[in-house]
Amino acid sequence: MQAIPVIVVLDVGRTNKKLFVFNEQYEIVWEKAARFTEITDEDGDACENLAALTQSVYDSLHEVFERKDFKIKAVNVSAYGASLVYVDEHGKPLAPLYSYLKQYPAALQQNLYDKYGGRETFLRQTASPALGSLNSGLQLYRLKAEQPAVFAATRYALHLPQYISSLVSGVLCSDITSIGCHTALWDFVRNGYHAWVQEEGLEVKMAPILPSNKEMPGRFGKHTFMAGTGLHDSSAALIPYLIQFREPFVLISTGTWCISLNPFNDTPLTQEELAQDCLCYLSYEGKPVKASRLFAGNEHEQEVKRIAAHFNQSALHYRTITYDAGIMRGLKPGVFGERDLSVFSSDVEAYHQLMLDIAMQQYHATQLVLQDQPVKRIFVDGGFGKNDLYMHLLANLFPETEIYAATIPQATALGAALALHAAWNSRPVPGSLIGLKRYEADVVVMDGPKR
Fold first, then answer.
1. Which of 114, 133, 239, 393 could serve as a FRET partner for 247 with CA atoms 20 to 30 Å apart?
2. Helix or strand or coil: residue 219?
């Protein structure tokens, strides 16, 4: 059997750590998954088991490089953001991989805002809502304040995707997709590190920024290949759409958080938008991407449990409910968490109400990134893209926009593979990376929003 050219992508999520192998047509030809039990840091807070993750990367790569049916041309990484690995000059970690859910000292955060123009100015310039440890730059600021010895010993603070990349490339670098995602490090007005990063002595702790499609020589044992810098997962998931579609679009990436991403809107964030949980990402091309966040997946999960318990149903039952225009016509939007379930005649009616309430929130969140931009298409990927009610409701709420459920197997890993296309793949990028199903507006659900 002749070995086929492939790229390996290490796709590291909070829960699942996966390895994917893509052929030249960007089809997944092999995959492996692992999960680890969290450990605790010195404060007793849960955190990633960095040693286990590092060893798993080596073990997984060893397994795939031993295969005779693959000729591995490249390796790249997609991983969750807002997480820093503090390494010495040899790339060895010096501290735990602190969780972005770790409680952040309010006084320390306020002190930073006060020193650099006040809270509102700071948040607007960095295009980052005040998110505590989720603002990864504040984690490094905290390390300097609370653990000066570790800070002094740190050569670089690497975001997690770049740390994992360094395991195969040996190169310590930064990447714009990790820096540009609610880190509070980047000044979106100046398009460079914010002044506070330099003045607090943090910039010297940030590794050199390399292009997101940069190819570097990699080595694993006797094997050589091209290695990528690694990408923040949200930005990686956008890459297939940016490659496939040139006309302006919005992507609603759904999961626990539903994030509306508009790569064609680079207007500066206003104070009002920041107050409504808007932020900016930087794409793999270094361009601002206006985004809004909605905690809709979490709300859906919790309220489905409440509906199921009230009507004595299995929560799995709601995965197969289809849109009923007749039921929807009698409902008005509101806040579902405040609703008395006894007013509904059935669990199906209650579920329609839940989805209407979520869809209205989604409409308002997505409108924040549209701002009269000439967007003709909205793509929905992730869990809600498979929800018949959600998709029909979006079509009704955006009657002048084409609404599509988009299907991409392992979008973040695929994006990381595509970022290195020129380094390993001599074939053109296939024109059918994304499966689309269009939803048409059918009824006016309410005397609702007009565009």
1. 393
2. strand
Joined tokens for residue 49: 């088991």
Which of 230, 258, 261 lies closest to 373, judged by CA? 261
What CATH number is attached to the domain comprising 45?
Answer: 3.30.420.40
pLDDT value at position 451? Answer: 33
Query: Domain boundary residue among 198, 229, 260?
Result: 229
- Tokens 């926009």 — which residue? 401
**pLDDT tens string 7-34:** 999 999 988 899 999 999 999 999 999 9
How far is the C-alpha of 67 from the C-alpha of 27, rounded, in Å?
Answer: 18
> Which residue type, as a one-letter code, is found at position 332?
K
| Rounded Cα distance, 314 and 332, in Å | 26
What is the residue-wise DSSP string for 42-53?
TTS-EEB-HHHH
Indicate the burial class of 105 (C-beta count within 10 angstroms; 0-12, 13-18, 19 or more): middle
Residues 6+ positions from 119 with CB-CB distance below 8 Å: 110, 113, 130
Distance separating alpha carbons of residues 73 and 358, to the nearest angstrom: 44
Final residue of a domain: which of 186, 208, 229? 229
What CA–CA distance (Å, rounded) separates 378 from 254? 13
> Are 285 and 202 in a shared domain?
no
d(CA 316, CA 155): 49
Range of the domain at 299: 237-451
pLDDT attached to residue 15: 84
Give the Å distances, CA to CA, from 312 to 53, 272, 304, 305, 317.
Answer: 41, 42, 12, 10, 11
- Tell me what pLDDT residue 234 has: 87
* Residues 273, 179 within the same domain: no
Mean pLDDT by 10 residues, the chain (451 residues): 94 92 97 94 97 96 96 97 97 97 97 96 94 97 98 98 97 96 92 96 98 94 96 93 94 91 89 90 91 94 98 95 95 97 98 98 96 88 94 96 93 96 96 94 51 33
Is residue 396 a contact partner of residue 368, using CB atoms and an 8 Å limit? no
The alpha-helical segments, DSSP class H, found in 30-175 are 50-65, 106-115, 119-126, 136-146, 148-153, 160-169
